Amino acid sequence: MAAMTPGVLASFVHIDAATDAIRALKAQGHTDLTVYAPAPNHEIEEALDHPVSPVRLFTLVGGLTGCAAGFAMTFWMSDNWPLLVGGKPIATVPPYVVLGFELMILMGALSTVLGMIVMSVVNARKRVPFSERFTDDQIGVFVPCRADQAAALEGLMQRAGSVEVTHAA
Amino acid sequence: MSHAYTPSQTHAEVTRDVVATLGAPSRGYVMMLAGAVGLFLVGLFTFVMLLKEGLGLSGYSPPIMWSVYITTFVFWVGIGHAGTLISAILFLFRSQWRTAVYRATEAMTVFAVMTAGLFPIIHIGRQWIFYWLLPYPNQRYLWPNFKSPLLWDVFAISTYLTVSTTFLVVGLVPDIAAVRDQVSGWRKKLYAACSLGWTGSDNQWRHYTRGYLYLAALATPLVLSVHSVVSWDFAMSIIPGWHGTIFAPYFVAGAIYSGIGMVFTLLIPLRKLLRVEHMIVDYHFDNLAKLTLFTGSILFYAYAMEYFVAWYSGNTFEQVTFWRRAFGPMWWAGWSMIICNAFVSQLLWFRKIRVNLTALFVISIFINIGMWFERYVIIVSSLSNDYEPWAWGQLNPTWADWGILAGSFGWFGMYFLLFARTFPIIAIQEIKETIPFPRKRGGH
Amino acid sequence: MDETQESGMDRRRFLTVLGVTGAGTAALSGCSTDRVQKLIPYMVQSEDQVPGIPTYYASTCTECASGCGLHVKTREARAIKLEGNPAHPVNAGKLCARGQAGLQSLYNPNRVRGPRKRLADGGFADTPWADGVAEVAARVSAAGGKVAVISGAGRGTFSDLLAAWTAAAGGTVVRYQPFDHEPMRAANQQVFGVNGLPSHDFASARMVVSFGADFLETWLTPIENQRGFAASHGYHDGTMSRLVALAPRMSLTGMNADEWFDIVPGAEAAIALSMAQVILAERSSAPPDAVALRGMLAAYAPDQIAQQSGLTADQIRLLAREFVSTEPSLAVAGGIGSQHAGAAQVCAAVNILNYVAGNVGKTVRFGADLEAGDGYAALAALQRRMDAGEIAVLVVHDANPVYALPKSAGFAAAMAKVPYKVSTALVLDETAALCDLILPQSHALERWDDLRPRAGIRSLMQPVMEPVYDTLPAGEVLLRVAKAAGGALAGLPSGTWDDYLKAQWQAFGRSRGAGDLASWWVGVLAEGGVYDAPPAPSAVRLAASAQQVSGQSPAFTGEGEFLFAPSASPMLYDGRGADKPWLLENPDPVTKITWQSWIEVHPETAAELDIREGEILRLVSASGSLEAPAYLYPGVRRDVVSAPLGYGHTNFGQYATGRGANALDLLAAPGDAAFLPYVSTRVTIEKTRRYQKVAKTEGSNRQLGRGIAEAMPLAAAARGLTPEEAHHEAAGGPAHEINTPRELEAIAGFAAAQKVAATKGNYVGDHPQWGMTIDLAKCTGCSACVTACYAENNIPTVGESEVLRGREMSWMRIERYYEGGHDGEPLETRFVPMLCQHCANAPCEPVCPVYAAYHTPDGLNGQVYNRCVGTRYCSNNCPFKVRYFNWFAYNKKAFPEPLHLQLNPDVTVRARGVMEKCTFCVQRIRGAQNEAALAHRPLRDGDVVTACAQACPSSAIIFGDRMDPESRVARSAADPRGYHVFEETNVRPSITYLAKVLHGAEA
Lengths: 169, 444, 1003
Fold this sequence. Notes:
The structure holds 3 protein chains of 3 kinds. By secondary structure, chain A is of the alpha+beta class. Chain A has helices spanning about 15-25, 40-50, 55-80, 95-125, 145-160, and strands spanning about 5-10, 35, 140-145, 165-169. In chain C, a hairpin with a 6-residue loop joins strand 28 (about 815-820) and strand 29.
């Protein structure tokens, strides 16, 4: 793990221990924490209290674009090659609703995934230490800090109930 | 949730048990896989023959221009729906019992739709130009006819395949990461690549949970629309027995019904095969069975309505069609559909049966057969006696029909089995979500 | 993978043929290498060969004895279609299915490709013409007069030459046709002292009674009969004639009858005489010499003969009174279907009936002298001489006696006794197979020839193309042999056959005082012959022998409880049609069975014997047995079984050999009878408990009140009611159904959509709207239109196995629906020609994902073959089920060389995997539009004639522009009888059917 962000990484088994630590750190003004968990957890979310993810905007924009694209394509193509079938109008709304709908869902979904990836990458902190237990059964809390703060923070973690604290210099 | 599902397990045990399913395959598994590949080869051979000689090899006899292939197409599309229902709709309803089974059903969805997607290509007269149905730019500006239900189908199915695949993959990422951190060697490298650098950091979870919610929100109307569109392939026509206004809900219910049937057929052996009996338990099957009972009863109503409307309409074409559906040359198909679907599903009123896996497995086989016959009856018997009596005819399927049918099961089974061995067939992180973390202050 | 490029005959292939001076044969016949040397490109364009422009030649049909006139359509030196010659008095531009299929005898893959000689081992080997001719010459001159010729050729220059040739060789000629109407001629001799066949005027007959004469199928001149019948029986101006059929089996003629009585077989004569008796008894103004018959007729008073005839005395009286009161009337007899031992007496009795009713000279016209051969008796006499070893050389021309006579007659054995036998057969048939030398004659479309089918008509044949194979006109062979043989034969003209024929015509021209022979000849060629007005009917009087006419019903041989009454198939005729795919696939008009022979059993009889359709039955007679699948037919008497003639060839090419069973196998040797009694033996039915699917195109034969084939009483039609009004009147309901608001909305929406459409792309502006009317009162179900459609549109024949799966491709099909027939009410048959209705609201169009099916500006329901991907949704959604799918590459199987030369270059040969259907002959529409454009004139009504309308002998089909109020189609569509099939679906067909009209209680 070369050139890791210097800081303290603590592992927790108990959920309330982890949230205590997070609250304590935030109280001390440490905001850019990285908290690992094997599964999403409301208590951690509350403790961190992040704003709502902007992914939903991607969904909205993608969906609307898809719907518009669906109608635009069908109407333009019908008009571009006008053929009479079954005595029906050349271009007409009811059958094209299906196309508009399907494209809305399609592009909505794809842009949502795009959003998830983009947002996760954009806000991701680089070179944060990580332990394989975090995808298994432990919660990890990492707080970046200067060497001189490390001791104090390690103490804080242990007091909160961390089972293991490491200092990445 | 009052009747919350709380397995006596810790997060660590969940990880171990699920990762254990990815171990070296058992003999039974290998034999099943071999069987699936064999069936697939049968289908492949048949398809090559169709390309070489022509569609005439199968039993089509005008006026029956669609038969076994379209029947099987609708059958597989239907199978898909249960998966999305369980993974997306029940997710929105926050029903916990889905967590243990949804990954398997979602995989079933993707592979079922993959199978169904082959049929529109297999069944057309000139398979080598199937892409003419797509609105691709060409120098003569020839565009497809968006008024045709078949084109709606193209869009609905391809959208469905894309979205359900995305949904499956997104759900997999954290679990793959979990597996990554348990295994070693080349497998670790493989899963590391598939895990897209997942660490489970608060930032990732934050966007992930949101995105997943919206995907579910999009998949929900999609699953309802797809089988409606498929039903409109028939309902938009003027064929008596096809152009029914109840077709969309009727088909959606049937789709979910058949889908859950297939879930039983797959899960009941699978949980033994993968030794996860303690994770997928009565509680799940009970709920699935209730869903089956519900949709089965909707079918019961729909069948009744079809006959009632035919009689009540006073339209001689409708009346003759439905009279012949029940008492004509194809009475046996008509009745096996009604018995297998409308009546057999009613057994599930009894909890004893809902939690008796043997019974459920047998019933699920009936459901699969019944739902295949439902489509066969709707398509073939309606076409065999429509407006012009002089043109009436009967269908005699041939080896080419059965070859493709068998091949489709092989193709599906092949993918499903491979998936079950390669990726967590039980959603690790969602189960963990249902297991509270231990607390230092009391509690667990 | 798209077969369009590889299809049997595409444009490129035509151009290669075109690049060859006439000798396109080089492109297809390996046996004529000498022609290949002469390949040279056009330096100067030959004047009658413009690429892409068809050339028409007048000729004459040789598929039966009628002698109908032909117009042969050729493209790039290939005959591609046969149509009737409008100038010809017999068929007036119409042509039956058999006649049109003559093209498939020209291009038949089974034709003998050159002279062939019998080898020691029994096989055949090619031999040069010179050797063949020399050999025959040697044999003939060595025969010392022991020469005999059997010729099926009609009266004409050739038969004259043949007579002269045989006379010079000291031999005898027997002119033999299997269906030769000997009984009629015998009867005419007996009753009127005239040994000839009169012409019959169906057009002016107000009432026709048929005593088993199948005049719409095989009797005398079917096309002429049908034209006349349709003209008088087709409803017009509140009236129509009336047809009563008396026969144990309901033939196509019976199906078109207003009343059919399944009389006791053999009772025809008694009934006819009984009617005559009634007439004479009740009518004062009978011809004086007829009165003398009163005594003889007294024995046939209705009450005497009623119970053994199958009719009640009252029915006979009613029939007789009606017959005499509707003038002129016409009684006909002598059909193959009722040709029993007493047939001559039936014809004689009918002669008397016509005579006493005063029809002779009006609707029965002697002096017309219709074509007839020497009859069976002459052939039998020759056979006896062959048996006696009195024949050294036998020449068989245009005849197949080994097949046409019952095996029991032993003609093959007699042939074995003849040391040397020569055949001129086109196809190696049963007779030719027994010969020592085959000198294949050129097809009628490849040679100069002529026919005199009746007094006043000389009909020409001219070569329309190079011979397909290495063949010669039989006349040419005769002349060459004569030259080589010398002796008495040297007296024959020395030139070629062509010179001889032209000399004859020049003589004829001079005799008619033609000034400039050359231009006269050109005129004759264009006309297709010389047609004088029919001679005035020669007056005939009763001969003394008329007194001997007897109504005795004949004895039938054999024990069985069922009488065997074979039917003459209108498709296969005497069996010569069995090698033509078009005729085998065109369903039998009565049973709708293709590619198979069958046994007709009455449903009640079948129920008694527990016979289901398709059970293979064995009919056993004293002389033999035959096996065929059962077909339950309500139109046959309960004590009669029937099977079609013409099947069961043992040696007649790939299509005919071994197909079906030969009905003649059941018949006893006719011995020295004057004719072959087809209805002569009783049979027993043996069940085999084996089953075979019957290759029929009939799904349900009941229309379940769906108004597909509408009919209305004459009275209602005369009052100008619509079929709907007639129904409501009969039912006593309201005259009109009221459209619901939704329906009105849909109808209005249609109009709106048209307005929108008319502002876009090709739809802008005025266009014709093509439409068609089909008069069911005229349609007889003859199915000539079906073959016309196959020929015009390159429709592939798919064969028995595919028909069994319902995959026949007939764009035009004739549906045959039954009405009644239950609990006592009479069985009524209705025919509906069903083809693409070119709906304005076509359900097939919007469902096509790629616009392969779309609506053209001129109202056609277009089908773009090379755009079609084959989803087949269009066919599912078609209420009329008139779309046909290429399940296999039919285009590769259906046209084996040289059959592919028949293909119409103006029409795509459809590839595998595409949908096809009737296009209203769009190629003809565009052709006519181009012609009009070149001539700077607007398209006139009648410029476009679809193939089906052109062929229809009843003129039941009218095609044209519905937008032009003056057009025939618009005016006929306005007929109150007009209706649309499945009108309730609001698909707006472009085809209007005119309801059939029924003689109701008023008769």
